[in-house]
Amino acid sequence: MPRPASYSRLQILLHWLVVILIVVAFLLSDQMDDWEDLPADAALPFHGILGLTVFFLMLARLALRLFRGAPPPPEADPAWQKRVAEASHWALYALAIATPWSGGFAFYLRWEEAADVHELLKTLLLLTAAAHTAAALYHQFILKDGLLGRMGLERR
């Protein structure tokens, strides 16, 4: 399948929406230990709803990625860097789907092992997202190749 020159508006919108939801879910999860004073039906389900939303938005992103494709990496990137970028993108998709999935098992089925898996996946997702962000900033400010423009952030 030929690769598109840029991401579609829908792909860009879903990307940033998922980023925002994951950040909010992470910030909320950091505070969940303090939620014990709140009624159970008031606090934890909100985190779960965020996770469920991320899960379904990521399935939509995955479908778009599979059927529409993604732009190729910059030509100037070395082959190893292109392979790492491709692998990290697929890892982000897998982790952003598996993390809320495991959280759902932990919360709705009260499955303790799933909670442990959820914590591990959350950490891996955040580390992979941090590496992804660092790579994007490297392209933007060190290489100055305008890579962020493909995600709706034009270089000025």
UniProtKB/TrEMBL annotation:
<keyword id="KW-0812">Transmembrane</keyword>
<feature type="transmembrane region" description="Helical">
    <location>
        <begin position="90"/>
        <end position="111"/>
    </location>
</feature>
<feature type="transmembrane region" description="Helical">
    <location>
        <begin position="123"/>
        <end position="143"/>
    </location>
</feature>
<dbReference type="InterPro" id="IPR011577">
    <property type="entry name" value="Cyt_b561_bac/Ni-Hgenase"/>
</dbReference>
<feature type="transmembrane region" description="Helical">
    <location>
        <begin position="44"/>
        <end position="64"/>
    </location>
</feature>
<dbReference type="GO" id="GO:0020037">
    <property type="term" value="F:heme binding"/>
</dbReference>
<keyword id="KW-0249">Electron transport</keyword>
<feature type="domain" description="Cytochrome b561 bacterial/Ni-hydrogenase">
    <location>
        <begin position="7"/>
        <end position="151"/>
    </location>
</feature>
<dbReference type="InterPro" id="IPR052168">
    <property type="entry name" value="Cytochrome_b561_oxidase"/>
</dbReference>
<feature type="transmembrane region" description="Helical">
    <location>
        <begin position="12"/>
        <end position="29"/>
    </location>
</feature>
<dbReference type="GO" id="GO:0022904">
    <property type="term" value="P:respiratory electron transport chain"/>
</dbReference>
<keyword id="KW-0472">Membrane</keyword>
<keyword id="KW-0813">Transport</keyword>
<dbReference type="GO" id="GO:0005886">
    <property type="term" value="C:plasma membrane"/>
</dbReference>
<keyword id="KW-1003">Cell membrane</keyword>
<dbReference type="GO" id="GO:0009055">
    <property type="term" value="F:electron transfer activity"/>
</dbReference>
<dbReference type="GO" id="GO:0046872">
    <property type="term" value="F:metal ion binding"/>
</dbReference>
<dbReference type="InterPro" id="IPR016174">
    <property type="entry name" value="Di-haem_cyt_TM"/>
</dbReference>
<keyword id="KW-1133">Transmembrane helix</keyword>
<dbReference type="Pfam" id="PF01292">
    <property type="entry name" value="Ni_hydr_CYTB"/>
</dbReference>
<comment type="similarity">
    <text>Belongs to the cytochrome b561 family.</text>
</comment>
<protein>
    <submittedName>
        <fullName>Cytochrome b561</fullName>
    </submittedName>
</protein>
<keyword id="KW-0408">Iron</keyword>
<keyword id="KW-0479">Metal-binding</keyword>
<keyword id="KW-0349">Heme</keyword>
